[in-house]
UniProtKB/TrEMBL annotation:
The keyword NAD applies. Residues 6-118 form the Gfo/Idh/MocA-like oxidoreductase N-terminal domain. Gene3D superfamilies: Dihydrodipicolinate Reductase, domain 2 (3.30.360.10), NAD(P)-binding Rossmann-like Domain (3.40.50.720). Signal peptide: none annotated. It comes from Arthrobacter psychrolactophilus. Residues 135-259 form the GFO/IDH/MocA-like oxidoreductase domain. The keyword NAD applies. This is Gfo/Idh/MocA family oxidoreductase. SUPFAM superfamilies: Glyceraldehyde-3-phosphate dehydrogenase-like, C-terminal domain, NAD(P)-binding Rossmann-fold domains. Keywords: NAD. Coiled coil: none annotated. It comes from the Bacteria. InterPro entries: Gfo/Idh/MocA-like_OxRdtase_N, Gfo/Idh/MocA_Oxidoreductase, GFO_IDH_MocA-like_dom, NAD(P)-bd_dom_sf.
Length: 388
């Protein structure tokens, strides 16, 4: 292999087209386009005209067997990610799967197990927000114990507004059989990943989910989930696709500080000089009276830092591509190992399962029960075959 990885792009739609542009614009210096695959003749024709000299295939298996690519990225509907990932790895070709890693944990676990049998190959997932310097810094702060033990987390992420025309644009979109869900599997996987990446994996979840609440779709467009971390700490996650104003606010409360993120751009980090309980127990009635009368100077007990980074559009995606290529070329550690993809899928599955059953469910839920209930919904749609 040369000092550049030849990437095969499976699916040259909006996402695949963006990756191709990042590469040709020089944003991924250790990568070139090796080949492109798409089942749509019009997209193949456009790809041939846009990227002269790049071979374009109508079948991804033919591309994998061509010798034209060292690695691939799977820019296809969610159900296909595990299958394509395994077919790629079977041929000793490195695999970068798009988010989510799949629709249900059973298929993602199969992909992970197969990837584990090929440790010499690079297996990654496109969690580009892990390449966001803001969230990298916040993870450092939490991991270093700078705000103490986590007591509560809250993420309201409702700035995914999508009009009905968006859902009408493709037959597979917003269907159980074609897409596997709505906002949880399409718009919010990055936040589900960041939530557990920074704050830890919860033990259980109770969810209220509305299906076709404000859109003519079968899947979810409104979600409110309450998670239990198992040690008295809780968290909430709220997301929707019908909020035209939209909110993106992420809070992490610790026993020695708090992080508040607005718009995924600016974080206010407040650190207490002592754990909150120590401060509480050290205060007498004089301090309480000063608190009630507004005379207590809270700056005596805390410090505040604003964390903010400039991020060029596309740099986070391009950075994941560059990191993936570097892992292949010289073993640079992956920003987002592919095996991590199952965590967000498991959380989304648990949210769905809780809403379907109307009860709190463990993150260690029965995978066969989930798949059975998913297949019930696919069967009711009558458009797609059930999943195995």
């Amino acid at each position: 292999m040369s000092n550049k990885v030849r990437l095969g792009i499976i699916g040259i739609g909006q996402q695949g087209g963006a990756y191709a542009k990042f590469i040709t614009d020089g944003m991924v210096p250790n990568m070139v386009i090796g080949a492109i695959t798409d089942t749509d003749p019009a997209k193949r024709e456009l790809a041939s005209a846009t990227y002269p000299g790049v071979k374009v295939y109508d079948d991804y298996l033919t591309m994998l067997d061509s010798g034209d690519v060292d690695a691939v990225v799977t820019c296809v509907p969610h159900f296909l990610h595990p299958e394509m990932g395994m077919e790629t790895l079977k041929r000793n070709i490195h695999a970068l799967v798009e988010k989510p890693a799949g629709v249900y944990t059973k298929q993602v676990a199969e992909l992970n197990a197969f990837a584990a049998s090929k440790p010499e190959l690079s297996f990654a997932i496109m969690f580009n927000q892990r390449n966001n310097p803001l969230y990298q810094r916040l993870k450092e702060i939490v991991d270093n114990g700078e705000i103490g033990n986590i007591l509560r987390t809250n993420w309201i992420i409702t700035n995914w507004w999508r009009p009905q025309g968006y859902y009408n644009s493709s037959e597979w979109r917003a269907t159980w059989g074609g897409e596997g869900g709505g906002v949880l599997v399409n718009q919010a996987p990055h936040q589900l990943d960041l939530w557990q990446w920074i704050c830890g994996v919860p033990k259980s979840v109770f969810a209220k989910v509305s299906y076709g609440f404000r859109r003519d779709i079968a899947v979810e467009d409104e979600v409110t989930a309450l998670v239990d971390y198992g040690n008295g700490a809780t968290g909430t996650f709220v997301t929707a696709t019908h909020d035209m104003i939209g909110t993106d606010r992420f809070e992490i409360l610790g026993d020695q500080g708090k992080i508040v993120v607005e718009g995924s751009k600016t974080a206010t980090v407040t650190r207490l000089k002592k754990p909150e309980r120590e401060i509480s127990e050290s205060m007498g009635m004089d301090d309480v009276m000063r608190l009630f009368t507004g005379q207590l100077d809270m700056d005596d007990y805390r410090s505040t830092e604003i964390v903010e980074f400039e991020s060029v559009w596309g740099a986070q995606h391009a950075g994941v591509l560059e990191n993936f290529a570097a892992n292949i070329l010289d073993g640079t550690p992956l920003l987002a190992p592919g095996s991590d993809g199952i965590k967000g899928v498991r959380l989304a599955n648990a949210i769905h399962l809780s809403s379907w059953k109307g009860e709190e469910v463990s993150l260690d839920f029965d995978e066969d029960e989930f798949l059975g209930l998913l297949n019930d919904r696919i069967r009711e749609e009558g458009k797609y075959s059930e999943r195995a």
